[in-house]
Amino acid sequence: MSVTRPFKATDLFKFNHINLDLWTETYGINFYLGYLSRWPDLCSVEESPNGRMMGYILGKAEGQNTEWHGHITALTVAPEYRRLSLARKMIDYLERVSDNTYRGFFVDLYVRCTNNVAIGMYEGLGYSVYRRVREYYGSLGLGRNAKDEEDAFDMRKPLSRDPMRRSVRPNGREISVSAHDVS
Amino acid sequence: MSSALDRQIRPIYEALDTGSNKSAILACNKLLKKHPKNDLVKALKALALVRSQKVEESLVVCDEVLAAKPTDESTLAAMMHVLRGLGRHTDMVAMYEDAYRQQPTNEELGSQAFMANVRIGNWKAAQQIATKLHKQFRDDHYLYWSVMSAVLQANDPTTPPGIRPVLLKLALRLIASATTPSFYNADRFYLHLMILRDLEQYDDAYELLNNDIGKAICASSLVCDELRRDIWRRKGLVKEEGAHATNQITEAKDRNWLEFLAVLDATFAGSSDGSQDDVAGRIAETRTLFEQVADSDGRGDRSGRLALLELEKRAVAHGSAASRSTELLKEYFATFGDKLVCFEDLQPYVHLEGNLLADWTEFLTSQSSSFTSVAELNCYLNAQKLLRYNLSASEATAELEATRAVQYLQAYFDALKLGKELPDTELQPADDLALLSGQAFVSAWRASRDATCLYNAVAALEYASSRSKQSYKIRLLLIRIYRLLGAPSLALEHYRAINVKQIQNDTLAHLIMTRATLFSLSSVGDLTYSSEALESSQIYISNSQETAEYTVRAFAGEKYSQLPEFILFEERLDNSLQRDLTKIEHVRIRITHEPMNSDLVDMELIELKFIFDRLDLVHHDNRDFDVIPNYQPHSGPSFHEQTLLFDKQPGLGWLATYLRIYIKIFQSASDLDDDVEDKLLIGDRPKPSLDPDTKLPLKERLAQRKQEELDELTAEELSFLEYATALSDWLVPFHDYIRPPPAAVLAEAAKQTELKTGFPLKGYEPPKNGTATNGHAKKAEEPPALAETPEVVNKFFDDMSARFKEALDAGRLPPELLQLVTLTQEGFLVLALETQRFKPAAVIKQYRLGAMVQILKDIRTKAVAVLEEMSTALIKLAEDGATVDSRKAFVQACKPVWGASGLLDHDFVATISKKVTESRKQVLDGVGKGVVRVCKNHA
């Protein structure tokens, strides 16, 4: 339960309790305004009844031809609001807009190969690993599992425009590409 | 352009792209020898110069290009970057408008001219250009540009209220003239609805929305749906919205809390006959609906149960008698008590009294205090937080709070086992118990003013931080407590560890920049806070360079819904209160270690006046205090309030007061007057304020005092204000008499510019009859008579000395001592600024200042004596505070958190004692030694 509302530029003044968490990056102004000036309908916030931001999602639409898809760029929920199905709610929304408004073939997202909790959650939501992207992330500087930490899984879920599920494959974990080869 | 030239220009772009400005300049110079008239090369050179901080040289080249009135797109694009770098947005507009005028059929130039106006919020001109573009090129998006510009002009604070509806009606007429209806895309539709709403034409808006297309748009556009809710509400369609929401909840299984609120609003909306039965009936209906939702959702969603609580609360407010609130609270707790959010959810509903409170408290107390899973721990945590929330003032005594703090800590250690296996990138589930312990210790300190409570708090929290390195919450508590204790280096360490960056600098810098002058050691050469001030202010530069660009992009992409927000965002950063509070701290820090030459005095004077001019317009307090955890009882102050230095929060009033002080002081010390300032200024002035107060002459505005502003100052800061004001007023006739005439100042500035750049100062013409002299021309009138030394000036240093001794004897915490010393030092520095004009022997002789100088000298001597005394005391205190004994005393004072088994380790506490005492020593010693140095620098 929460209020679903658009992500606004002025939310940047209010998201500290979410972004101070280790796993959430705080980008420059240009990053957020870049998204909002192009895909405002793919950016939304979940807010608690008393008006605190609980989490947010930022997305975009990109790709050519059958690769045209919605992409989840950032998805985060503040620690105290986890395990309330907020991520599922935000992803549902982004999938709906990607499907209805943008007519994409699929939605995809990147996740650190070490982030098992997140990977499990995405699988539960119908996503599967499409490929492994080498050295996609910067190191967290924690000095362990360096390789897995910097590699990303590109996970995908087909939308209604891809009824034959051509945008996914069963053996994605074994297919590995370099970070230069992806957009 | 010839392809040969094109080939030669490409490397210049590459050099610029990679930041090799030097080689770009060289390449430009080489090309300019062959093509001395090429505007593009000149523009690129100007750009490379701006980027290498060679502003004056860049200006010359830039003006040459502007004078040639370029129309070539590459040149214009390069010039756009140059002018932006120089802050000359008005010139940018003129340049593009000129180009468009020369080539009126060039669509691209027309768009650029439009965008240039958008960048600086010139909505009227933007609207006219867009209209022209639409007439000429017949594309609907130009029409919408003009509509949006009209709306933005209507919303602009400079637009007179009477003009507002005219502009909105114009916008509406324009939309009606479009070839395609507004529902062509969601953002055009949004714009259309927004205009109708602002014109209060709710029926028309309703008509647009209440058809299939309108419904379809709202279903997939959150912004449109948000606007729809607003329009429904304004039109009084509460009932309809309630029915719609009921449908959403039952049929579509929507669990958006807004739908539940809509149902609640409809339940209590005034009925036509106003009968109570009607409402009671509706309450019963709504209750049934929510109960069904609660039952079917179970633990899956909180909406139903929370809505029942809200319904009960509103029903009681409406006059319903029998209260089921504790029952509902217990049910809620039983269902969701294991979710951390439970505490926040229930807060609005637990303001209970009498039997209800007793019943609720008993329920919470009976919750199990043993936990074998995170779910059980969360239940316990929620119970503890809720119990604490309802503590009355009489239950929050020092003893009781200290006891609670230890109990929380015991539970914390017990709970740590649940997170043993977690990697150190994860938060510990036990963290909140440590937070509770820290808060209770602080509460105990507030009740007793016994600093040892704070020692216990930092020991406990430091341990928790070591176990949960990623917990920013623990660090926030530590930052606040370390500042209270006068251990700023430790506060800074934790601040750095939470990795504040980008926009967070605006919202979080208050954590360390508030009254940073207290802790700055710049007088002994440690520039930590000075550079922190500059670094945290970078975001404002990014804002002014980047944000407007996205406003332009939103226009280009027709994302009209985003524009008002982008504009507000830019404005909130540009006029951020924290920005200017940091600025003041930076100025205060600068004067302790930099020479007081015109680089400092003139530049700061100009900047402070800018801030002062826009002060009353709007300042936005973007500081995030909510991020600081608060688990204190709601009957008393929050943790944030409890841990404010000196119990005062500097805000707009504090800022205004300090601006007045320093503008006055710098005005005295400076040779600049408004004319000269205008000539020397590069870039645009900020938009003038709308507040009628700012129309008053500066002098009157500087003399204003408002009680609510002064209330933000500490008693010591008030003394400083009185002193600095009196000092400045006393000496002002002499400054005005001796200050060289503007013509002479300007001539000198022109000379310096020419020496530096090889070009004459722009817009400056030397006087023809040669009246400019060396600046010490003999004055016709007699020198002013010296008034008697103001009493406050005479007494300031003695008073501060007495207060310092008092505070020292009373064993006050370091920040109080530091405040007294740094303000006394500031009084001395202000004296130095105010009197340096009277220093040269020639001036004394020429203006017969002998008597005055002697009086000033006496004041200075007294100041130095007082400061030296303070210095000695601080240095001694620093030594005494960091001995083996004092560390032992610290550890001993922390016995509550390590004495019993199962709590902290003695050695751990010993380490903390060392860190705290060392950090204190560093700041006391540094400030103490710095004082002597400052005195020497201005002997």
Q: TL;DR of this structure?
A:
Chain B: One of its GO terms (cellular component) is NatB complex. Chain A is of the alpha+beta class.
Provide the structure class of chain B: mainly alpha
Low-pLDDT runs of chain B: none
Count of alpha/pi helices of chain B? 47
- Outline the biggest β-sheet of chain B: none
Sheet having the most strands of chain A: 8 strands, mixed
What level of helicity do the residues of chain A show?
Answer: 10-25%
Identify the quaternary structure here. Answer: heterodimer
| Percentage of residues in strands of chain A | 25-35%
Shape verdict of chain B: globular
Relative strand content of chain B: under 5%
CATH H-level superfamily of chain A = Gcn5-related N-acetyltransferase (GNAT)
Question: Residue share in helices of chain B?
Answer: 55-70%
User: How many strand units of chain A?
Assistant: 8
Point out poorly predicted stretches of chain A.
none
CATH architecture of the largest domain in chain B: Alpha Horseshoe
**Mean model confidence by pLDDT of chain A:** 92
Radius of gyration of chain B: 33 Å
Overview of the structural elements:
The complex is a heterodimer of chains A (183) and B (939). Chain A has helices at 16-19, 29-38, 86-100, 116-124, 146-150; strands at residues 3-6, 44-47, 53-62, 69-77, 106-112, 128-134, 152-158, 176-178. By secondary structure, chain A is of the alpha+beta class. In chain A, strands 1-2-3-4-5-7-6-8 form an 8-stranded mixed beta sheet, sandwiched between helices. In chain A, helix 3 (86-100) links the parallel strand 4 (69-77) and strand 5. The longest helix of chain A has 15 residues, at 86-100. The model of chain B has no long low-confidence stretch (mean pLDDT 92). Chain B starts with a helix and ends with a helix. Chain B contains 47 helices and no strands. The chains are: A alpha+beta (183), B mainly alpha (939). Chains A and B meet through strand 1, helix 1, helix 2 and helix 3 of A and helix 14, helix 16, helix 28, helix 30 and helix 31 of B. Chain B: Belongs to the MDM20/NAA25 family. Chain B: This is Actin cytoskeleton organization protein. Chain B: It comes from Daedalea quercina L-15889. Chain B: It holds the Pfam family NatB_MDM20.
